[in-house]
């Protein structure tokens, strides 16, 4: 589901590495959801969600520090997008995951993919065009 494309490259090596790591974690979650051999995926889903959230927080902090270092003028609006994304993680309905693991997680995965795709190609590319 999460396929790295050349268009995602910011030319900031550390940020590109971190974006690729986010894709890798997202793909592990997607593969777990699509695996019909695992009946109860809740614990594994939760482990990957926690890892994805923690790595996302780490990445956003790194990216925000980078933007401040380069004096990026749209830093605050960019940070608001990061904060909104983390809020989505904090608002995950764990009962829905437990009751309807695949359906709820596919909806969440689609949100994550669309957000990452749009954010990297749209918002992130603005600070690297300096």
Keywords:
single chain; 130 residues; mainly alpha; Four Helix Bundle (Hemerythrin (Met), subunit A); 0% strand; Bacteriohemerythrin; Hemerythrin-like; metal-binding; Haemerythrin_Fe_BS; iron
How is this structure best summarized?
This protein has 130 residues and is an all-alpha fold. Helix content is 77%, strand content 0%.
How would you describe this structure to a colleague?
The protein has 130 residues and is an all-alpha fold. It has one domain: Four Helix Bundle (Hemerythrin (Met), subunit A) (Up-down Bundle). Helix content is 77%, strand content 0%. α1 packs antiparallel against α2, α1 runs antiparallel to α5 and α2 packs antiparallel against α3. The protein starts with 12 loop residues before the first helix and ends with a helix. Keywords: Iron, Metal-binding.
